Amino acid sequence: MPHTDRASLWSAAGAAGRLSERALLGAEASVTLNELVRGSSLGGRLEELRGRSVLVATRDQLTAALALIELDAVASRLVLCPPDLPVTHLPWVMATAGVDALVSDRAAPGPGTPGVRTFVTCTPRIAPVGPERNGERPTEWILLTSGTTGQPKMVVHTLSSLAGAISGGGTPANAAVWSTFYDIRRYGGLQIFLRALLGGGSMVLSSAEESTADFLIRAGARGVTHISGTPSHWRRALMSPFAHRIAPRYVRLSGEIADQAILDHLRAFFPKAGVAHAFASTEAGVAFDVGDGFAGFPAGLIGQQNADVEMKVEDGSLRIRSARTATRYLGDEDGPLVDRDGFVDTGDMVERRADRYHFVGRRGGIINVGGSKVHPEEVEAVINGHPHVRMSLVRTRKNPITGALVVADVVLTEELEAANGRVAELEHEIMQRCRETLSRHKVPAAIRFVSALAVTPSGKLVRHDA
After folding, report:
1. CATH number of the domain located at residue range(s) 367-449 in this protein
2. 415 three-state secondary structure
3. Which of 69, 101, 202, 289 suits 341 as a labelling partner, its CA being 20 to 30 A distant?
4. Could you read off the pLDDT of 183-242 as tens digits, one per residue?
5. What global pTM score does this model have?
6. Residue 290 region, left (φ>0) first, then alpha (ψ -120 to 50), else beta?
7. What's the CA gap between 417 and 290, in Å, rounded?
8. What is the DSSP pairing of strand 367-369 with strand 309-314?
9. Which residue, 276, 171, 168, is CA-closest to 227?
10. What architecture is the 9-352 domain classified under in CATH?
């Protein structure tokens, strides 16, 4: 299936029109696309980066966004460096990607980037210079996976594969102001960035330096209409007293399993918004989104022939083939990205219940309790369904008899101090709910009430054994 033809990010964004009314809005500065028509964020040094393999390693999302717009179809390769990438991984990333130029918002190359031949500073202060941007060459976009241990995988995309699920054509009547809790240098955030640009809208960029409350206040002040995040992002947002500052028309979830509880909470909190959850991965691309209000996805999506996205379930794992799939991994040690039939094995496990498939967890995240398998996410979905639970984390605790026990950390919708008098009652209710719904070996052996749960920089729950 051919990729959608898009000459460059800049030309595609321009084709969506109204450049003077569209902006990228950062925490400290903002830039309209019309300003980029007249100038450059790279100080007039774009020509020095033509045909180069460029590492985009900025602290600020706004400067990263500006660099990506200017460099697509100019650089031969764009390597998106997320801000949480350990410095120890940088030399490997640069060597594997053949990086010979660095774009940063710093005054000089940072640690871990020795021997950079060309260093260009990117700034939101647009200089009135710059050559005409044209789509001379296809640019490879290199995204790093967000694995919790070891070196990340480097996934090769094109603008066409990245934008395959996006249809442009925003108009003044319905132009969106997008935002996301994600960083745009991860796949989920990049999708929202591209949706804003190619759909004719603006985008409010988040900042790692601001709290959830400050971000919600700023997003509300900027009139955000479309906003995306992981279920964990949204659970934390709904715990904030400033969640009411935003009044979106569209709420999107991705990156983690969207259970029925979070979908119901969002629909109740934003009754005028459409709520959808999407499935995508860095390797497979965007597979589908579901806007019917229910967890999981219709069984009819599996096995469709000659569809834009073809899906199948094999050994319980969802597999995907489409023009949105990445080209390959960069580095032979990572092995093939697709199987011999062109499908990506996502490693996300699903099971069919009546006319719907439900996600139950990651293949590598199974807890083994006395030889029986437990997907933590399946147990969390049951716990999160309790009306007084905001979010939960199910993990394993070592046990000399079974090898492991299932335990749960639970965040309540109300202040823990206020609920202290009801802790025993709430624990009993949650445990009873689990016993009625889950097999015996999946029921938590213990519940611990906590005030918060750790979330990774990519917006997912931090999972670890104890």
Report:
1. 3.30.300.30
2. coil
3. 289
4. 999 999 999 999 999 999 999 999 988 999 999 999 999 999 999 999 999 999 999 999
5. 0.91
6. beta
7. 37
8. unpaired
9. 276
10. 3-Layer(aba) Sandwich (3.40)
